[in-house]
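Self-study notes.
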Amino acid sequence: MTFKLTPIAISLVLSFGLFGCNNDNNNQPTIPTPDTSLPATPIINMAVLKYIDPMIGTAASGHTFPGAVVPRGMVQLSPDTFKGTNTDTESGQNPWHSASGYWDASDYVAGDVLATDLNIYGFSHTHLSGTGATDLGDILVLPYSDIANSENNAFNKATEIASPGYYSVVLNNGNIKAELTTTTRVGIHRYTYEQGADRKIKLDLAHTLAANNGESLQNRVELVDEYTIRGRRVSTGWFQGQDIFFYAQFNQPIAHAMIARDGGDAMNMQMGAVYGSINSPNKQQITYLDFGKGDQPIEMRVALSPVDWDGAQKNLEAETPTYNFANIKANAELAWAKELATVQVKGGSEAEKTNFYTAMYHAMIAPVEYQDVDGRYRDLLGGVRQADGYKNYSVYSTWDTFRAVHPLLTITNPQHATDLANDLIRKSQETGLLPKWEGYGEETGTMIGYPATAIIGDAVVKGLDVDAKDALEAAKKSAYYRPYDFPQIPDHTLQAVMAGQLSYYERDKCVGLPNWNSVSYALEFSYYDWTIAQMAKVAGDDAAYKEFNDRAYWSLNHWDKEAGFFVPVKLNSCEKEFASDTFNPYSSDAYWYTEGNAWQWQWTFMQDIDKLTEVMGGTEGFNTKLNDLFTADTDGGENHQDMTGFIGQYIHGNEPSHHVIYLYNRTNESWKTQEYLDRVYKEFYKPTPDGIIGNEDVGQMSAWYIMSAMGFYQVTPTDPTYTIGRPIFDEVTIKLPTGDFTITADNNSSDNKYVKSVLINGKPLDVFNSFEHSEIKAGGTLHFVMTADKSQAMAARLN
């Protein structure tokens, strides 16, 4: 149903159209009151929000968080239940699962569900979604009544409520109800205590999600007045040298404030005194605030800033000028409904709609807007800059998200895709190199190659408002091993972003052992070089095109024709390290491959799949290699922890495999694309806490599902071509800036998984069941006819 947001209609929409993840009256969407207003807006379908379940991915290795966040919000206010310390309540648990700060350790497959007396440290304001590494958890807040419960508390799953922009739970010790909501830069807390109980809050600047050597370095805090506290936290870990400021206000006066510093006893805080000077920093500062007994809940607004605490104060005053939890929650819900309105689906099961819209939700959490309301932000070297006509973003997991997150945005939100591509280019101009894995103003250099080139390249070839020459210049700087050109970049960052493997690749046209991830580096360098060549072509730079197009084939020096895989080679010579008949493709040796083995990495030569087909023995050999992949022994070797979601040696739980199923469209068995997609949908995406088969990876696992569920996928980012798959829904409408693009699937059902015929804008598909990005246009259609009969499945045109 669609509702126009007049005051009366808003009340109807919000009371009728929204449901949380648990059936609890306290989670009914906000009903506006005379002092609660929502901004004027076009018609928005609020009912879609019932299909978002933030609990999906919080168990197993999904590593998502259930807390409150708005689209692209700098604040992710969420409970912390697992820090990755391997001590106390976490003893014996894998610290890897602390990535988002929240982990449900239940084994849902075995039926071993942990539901009562679960540990909780409190609620912090920054979290990563779906990563394989841990950081953040800044500015922890824990309400308590008894000092015995000021370190941590416990909760029961039955009291948890998670919905878009809202989270609530009851803390067992003290029976304190915690409610959270957010704006872009402000986290809003509401704590309801038992009648007559002491109302106390711990504000912990020392709290750290610690699995990746996380540590608090410097804390500063000041009790400004009886309603206000502000501070600064500098920490290290995966994000080295992260610096964040906060400004917090309360709806009730602080009756008594104490502070404990660096493990010492708590002492009284003096109004206006700053605790933790630059000359004498405190690594740990924990503030204990006592509001006395009372009948009113304690409401708390905490604004963050990457620049200073004056910026945090301005953010608070601009986004939450008054205490109105209901209004802020309603605005967060509206923000999500507006974002989700870009794609509308009909048909499919309730579970499939939940998978789909929760995937959209996860894909819209990051990159986050990382600047103050006045436009100030810190660049990757720590300098303060002023945004003029643009926004600064952060949390770029480019190795993951270049594959589907950014290509999806070029369709569903081309302006945002443009903004992100230009943001990456601007970061290169400001600091020297394109980001690789950047978070909260700090570059980690995690993963391999220079994957941002695939993001900006895709934007360039699709004709977005991105300057091809600027894009090319930024990409070229990252593609040459020239560390001496960037003295401004700290050594530890430069060594990670401009990895030494690149020097061997340039010198030898391969990456020999004992280089870490050697084969994977070579393959990725070659692909990214191809994306640079495509930018050069658009920019009209013939010399650069020739240079980088040539480099795009160097990784073929790792191809072993007899073994049939890309294999490790010797340093300096590119000679094969192993005899072909002794090579073990099941080995996930980290000196050879990144988070996988030869079975997965043979398909990452995405830049010229015609050439890959040729070296694999032509169409028949290519088809055989695909069949061998999906029927290989799942238990053939020791696996990296990121290797999950097996079908043979296809692993859906990690990104290098995500395009592989679609390669069957280049064979005489194109129906297998639909067959294996149907299996992945049903086995690896479920509306349950363990419903994501691997790390969600900042939207990538979700974006794959969104595109695939709509019926198509982009195999090679920076090649503006899509190939068809197996649509889940009867109809999908994509709201483009100038009109609608509609995807329909006649005779579609759970059993009718094969594509009988398909037309794009009334015309047959191109070679390999493909169509061009330019054909996704206002008034356009992609029309499928489905069947349960494999013999009726359409064959792909192979030439």
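Second protein, same conventions, sequence then structure:
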Amino acid sequence: MMLTDPSLKYRPFPQVDLPNRQWPSNVITAPPRWLSTDMRDGNQSLIDPMNAEKKRRFFDLLVKVGVKEIEVGFPSAGATEFDFISGLVRDGAIPDDVFPQVLTQAREDLIATTFESLRGAKKAIVHVYNAVSPAWRNIVFQMDQPQIRDIAITAARLLRDNAAKQPDTDWHFEYSPETFSTAELDFSLECCEAVMEILQPTPERPLILNLPATVEAATPNIYADQIEWICRNISKRDSVVISLHTHNDRGTGVAAAELGLMAGADRVEGCLFGNGERTGNCDLVTVALNMYTQGINPGLDFSDIDEVIQTVEYCNQLPVHPRHPYAGELVFTAFSGSHQDAIKKGFAAQEARNDQIWDVPYLPIDPKDLGRDYEAVIRVNSQSGKGGVAWVLQQDKGLKLPKRMQADFSKVVQALADESSRELNAADIWTAFETHYRLTGEQPYSLIDYHESGAAGDRIFTGKITHKGGERSISGRGNGLISSVLAALRDELGVDLEVADYSEHAIGAGTDVAAAAYVECRTPDGRTIFGIGTDTDVATASVQAVLSAANSVATQR
């Protein structure tokens, strides 16, 4: 049961003493180095860890996406991990521009096994860590600060000495003061400096210092303060790569990584779609695409986001949430009527503008950049408005309904959605459209053929239609085709309509396309009736539209 006074049990996280902090004014202008830990942190968090086939499939996906540093596993954890990693090296599966990275605890036997798994590799990063925070020192290890620092120093020497035994490999090193974000900053710095003293990094061969929020325990601004503090106080700043490794325990792993970059970090570690222990690691996809929407090429290619999702879901046996940023099934979908209307207008404005700048309400990124189409951007249920219904018809059938016709048909769809209590798909909407405007089913009047003659301003319509199960010829005179059709319907069939509005458009583009025609008519008793016709000939489409309206009048009698 939750406490009425949680301060009796929980303590607020202390602020960082950082006068004149600079990161709040900084802007991300370039992508970081990316490290995927899907095959390590991500894999260890799975109910059923990946087998060799799935790990290889995941590795190939990361390479295809463009990740250049991949933590391929923990080779000392067991034969499965060791064999997979050594197999990548043996099979020549690692591209020359990709760094495989492996993780190891700070123990002599484990470090030796780790180096052995990479024997023959052209280049590699060996990542060693030891936890430094008070909880781990006091509870887990029961060691004081000097003892913890000595573990880091011993590990650094083992990295140096094991690398010297395999001089043909281009070795790089990473050190993590694990649990950094909940440790004393000066002690984390002390451990990092001790490791640097052993490994002697240079600007040409820098040491990666990974500063993990192993458990997210504070707001992301505090993590940014911690990163800026380290960047200010570390010696040989030009000889180290500051790497971020955030978790999502408080739901702000992405924000912490972004603020950490603003604070001076160079590298981001994480997993695709944020897989990882507990609530997950930093989501590399979201961080990368956030940059993309700010005009920065992140260096990672998610042009086919659905292929990435399918592979990740197969390998992890975990679904990507429908609301997951950029990737979820519903993230580019609007059901709300006002949202749909804004999006529809945004697309129309986008099409009319003569520039490439993306500016569509509710869509921070163009779905097509990620391999998605626009069909699912607007979906219809009981919350939808006329703009959403019109969008579906435009995307599915190429019809651009006039505004008043949109309002007329949206009432039909609203009633259907209320009755069915479910989302309506494009087929549902089209069936309702055909039925409401008498394009199918009962049609008292159906055009067989027609002929138009006469001079300008005095046109004669002569047509053959089906009526009451047979064929009938009708004719009428007017100042144009539509008025002559109306005259024929009035004089010979008793259908009295007056056209209030007419519009037409091509369906699609090119020279061999169909046309759609729309009429808004008034009856003598004041009712408004809409009609639609489509045909490869626009004149025929307009005749069909008038007959569509006449059919509505006839069936409403």
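Instructor comment on the second fold: The radius of gyration is 34 Å.
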